[in-house]
């Protein structure tokens, strides 16, 4: 066995395969700097060999665990948070992997690289590390990454033309898939596999899909566990195996700046794990992920307590919460963190009630969520046999619904709005208005078809008085119609302002209308 | 100084003043067994002397802290949880109070004594210790206990004729009051008082009010801290003083079976305490209250995390949450505990928007809360000068609003309903129905005035099919009108049942209507 040292330069998530290089190196900020070493192949390296590197630079010291990639190859992936000179030194239980040293220059991020996602200072929104706001329009294709290369390519083509900027995706299969064996098989039965030996090919394939999403600017919401796998039992392992699996995923994928961690999908439907198990796995993940990627967990019935310190944002399944901006906003009050309704039932033709939304109903949920200061996720279930397993939701492929263009339109409205995002405005007083107090107001009428809106906006005597322009937004037909003239606000009562000369706005009497009031 | 031993027999909360007796004693189950001792008067007994008794009986050992009641008198109050022989032995830092021994016979509870309040096994409702369901119809008179005896007597008279079975009440004053000095005064300024020396008269007066509520069968929701006291600063003490105060209240009042603890009113408006302080004070309270009375805390803006282990139920302020049963029910999903909306803005004529509800709007909030499986609190602000300080909310006295009879009617509907209470039924699917699945359904229409209700009830093929009788309930006019005939349920689709012969119920086209469907 040779014990070599290879150090890697990768432009980050944009590189499908890390480019290896010897000697002097440069890696861009928030890219992936990969170290590659040859090491022990005997025994079970996944269990027997620990390897990590301590990186020092920009006044920081960051210890990054590595992983075994099979065939005697060990990798350590680091995403430098700051420019400048970084040095590193390896640690390992294997002497031939320990004490290696090197360094590299971290250069400025290239165009389009905004860095990893963070929760904004106000506590309720997301922005890239460079400050660029992130207006989440998510979708879900549970097992798209585990399909054939051809099917994956089709999904990627669909995503290129779609508005989605976050993808929820399972690591292990829930529906029919080409890739089904994350662990080395030991026999022919579905449960004949060795939880202590990962199959690097499986993880490399998944990683390729992660990287392709990064190339499209789509965040990868990686779901580590789910309950849809009673046959194979990947989600029913023992604690030590779960820990090893979580650490392996974190070491392999944590350096990709667009990775988010979803600890579980419908976690509370996994009967072999208790709340203590979930809390423990989060603690393992926090310890295993020096890149500190976003972390959440998604439920079916029992809300996880998203105030727990390891949770960065609330990931919620609830189809009713986003039919009312105030219900949605209350989830912020509970979590005191950003809220994404990752599952609000789906557009489609499923024979189940959770997959029968019209496109109008799907879009409506995004708008109410927005007014409530939260974010919403899409998916669709269209299938000739009404079996969602074979739909976009299950496998990816092509979109058959009609909500996506409207979600693109919504995203544009969001981008034109305040940064970092829309907040509910005095939602405990039933205004049903989102925006930014005194500056930007977004009123949405949902399925109602009013012919007029009485313009009364929250504002007290001590608040600044501004003038506003107004737009009538048809959220379904994707039109923005300016209202002529200016609204000059004056005090109406102790709590509200209005323009006495223009107390109301005429509306078209159709559903799916919003009004936007922007300070001039 | 004489060091004597007196043991007390009290029939429990029903006794305004504990009856002292020597020698053989009997105390009823869940009553108050009071031990009275003479002890040290020198120095500052509130700080210098610790006293407690260890009670043994029914296989249990319970250590009960005592308190100094002034003039050399020490009291230890114990509420025996089980009948049979109990023995006790005192512990004290003062030798003359230590090592006293005695015993008493705990006899069966008398009629009307249902024991202390507990959360029911299902996790979302309340019942007395004997299993009697508690249908919470709360009210708030913040400083009623601190008013003159005459005014207090007036409040008691009002309560005798009112439906309320829980009273929220501050320990320290927020508005004009007769009793304003819980601590011994040291000068003439509002902040001239000694936090280490309680005024026993003040606490004895408050205790008298607690006992009077008990005589009426009204739970006393004792609010330990509040933010309406910047002048005197009782809520801005140092940690050690807060701890002593909490322990004193717990020792004095914890044995009364109808006491609940509300750690704070609008806790997050008290700027001198952090979240850590609140958590700490709860830990102090848990340690100081061997009777384990219900514990919660009430917010203005920032929801406390009611999943914390010391919280027994969520106490919520939110006027919008109870305008929609699903918003209300989501608070159960957040807390995983019973939810009481203790403040939903008030009926009255206040010039503030938080005190301007019509009686209809007040009653509406109770009904939506009920359908959502939660409980609601009342108060009113009527005052000739529109100043709520001098209203029922501030000082008690008489009720001027018209919601109370409707809340009595509501309470009767609750009592006729399932035990331990109404649960939301599939609220994440927007049925807007509460009750008990397959057996009892309560549909409420609020301010809407439908002329018909299409009767589709949640029920799958595998669920039992029943026949139902129906009532149309006018929640404002307090009438129950039976619908002729029987509804025999059959499967309508995968999720719902209906009676194809009687697919709908005609309604009167008025607001504030509910329909009750009860299994025959």
TrEMBL record, chains A, B:
Transmembrane segments: none annotated. It comes from the Bacteria. Coiled coil: none annotated. InterPro entries: Apiosidase-like_cat_dom (IPR025277), DUF5060 (IPR032260), DUF5605 (IPR041239), GH (IPR017853), Ig-like_fold (IPR013783). Residues 429-517 form the DUF5605 domain. It comes from Sphingomonas tagetis. Residues 121-378 form the Apiosidase-like catalytic domain. It holds the Pfam family Apiosidase. Residues 27-92 form the DUF5060 domain. This is DUF5060 domain-containing protein. Gene3D superfamilies: 2.60.40.3950, Glycosidases (3.20.20.80), Immunoglobulins (2.60.40.10).
């Amino acid at each position: 066995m040779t014990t070599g040292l290879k150090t890697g330069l990768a432009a980050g998530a944009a590189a499908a395969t890390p480019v290896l290089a010897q000697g002097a190196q440069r890696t861009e900020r928030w890219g992936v700097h990969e170290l590659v070493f040859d090491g022990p192949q005997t025994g079970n390296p996944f269990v027997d060999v620990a390897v990590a590197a301590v990186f020092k630079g920009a006044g920081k010291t960051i210890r990054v665990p590595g992983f075994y990639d099979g065939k005697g190859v060990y990798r350590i992936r680091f995403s430098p948070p700051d420019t400048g000179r970084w040095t590193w030194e390896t640690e390992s239980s294997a002497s031939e992997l320990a004490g290696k040293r090197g360094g590299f220059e971290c250069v400025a991020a290239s165009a389009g690289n905004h860095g990893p996602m963070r929760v904004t200072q106000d506590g309720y929104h997301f922005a890239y590390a460079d400050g660029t706001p992130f207006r989440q329009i998510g979708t879900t294709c549970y097992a798209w990454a585990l399909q054939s290369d051809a099917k994956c390519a089709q999904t990627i083509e669909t995503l290129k033309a779609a508005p989605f900027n976050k993808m929820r995706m399972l690591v292990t299969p829930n529906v029919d898939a080409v890739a089904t064996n994350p662990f080395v098989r030991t026999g022919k039965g579905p449960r004949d596999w060795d939880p202590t030996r990962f199959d690097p090919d499986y993880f490399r394939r998944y990683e390729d899909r992660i990287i392709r999403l990064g190339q499209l600017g789509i965040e990868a919401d990686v779901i580590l566990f789910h309950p849809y796998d009673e046959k194979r039992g990947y989600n029913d392992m023992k604690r030590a195996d779960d820990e090893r699996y979580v650490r392996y995923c974190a070491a392999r994928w944590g350096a990709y700046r667009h990775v988010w961690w979803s600890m579980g999908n419908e976690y509370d439907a996994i009967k072999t794990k208790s709340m203590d198990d979930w809390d423990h796995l989060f603690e393992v993940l926090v310890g295993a992920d020096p890149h500190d990627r976003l972390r959440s967990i998604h439920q079916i019935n029992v809300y996880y307590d998203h105030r727990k310190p390891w949770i960065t944002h609330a990931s919620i399944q609830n189809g009713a919460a986003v039919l009312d901006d105030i219900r949605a906003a209350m989830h912020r009050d509970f979590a005191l963190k950003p809220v994404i309704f990752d599952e609000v039932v789906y557009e489609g033709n499923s024979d189940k009630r959770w997959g029968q939304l019209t496109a109008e109903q799907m879009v409506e949920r995004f708008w109410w969520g927005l007014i409530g200061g939260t974010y919403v996720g899409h998916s669709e279930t269209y299938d000739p046999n009404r079996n969602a397993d074979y739909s976009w939701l299950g496998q990816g492929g092509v979109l058959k619904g009609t909500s996506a263009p409207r979600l693109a339109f919504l995203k544009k409205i969001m981008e034109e709005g305040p940064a970092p995002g829309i907040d509910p405005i005095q939602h405990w007083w039933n205004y049903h208005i989102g925006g930014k107090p005194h500056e930007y107001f977004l009123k949405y009428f949902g399925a109602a078809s009013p012919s007029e809106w009485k313009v009364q906006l929250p504002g007290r005597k001590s608040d600044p008085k501004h003038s506003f322009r107004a737009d009538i937004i048809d959220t379904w037909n994707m039109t923005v119609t300016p209202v002529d003239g200016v609204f000059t606000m004056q005090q109406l009562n102790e709590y509200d302002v209005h323009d006495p000369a223009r107390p109301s706005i005429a509306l078209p009497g159709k559903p799916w209308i919003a009004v936007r009031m922007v300070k001039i």
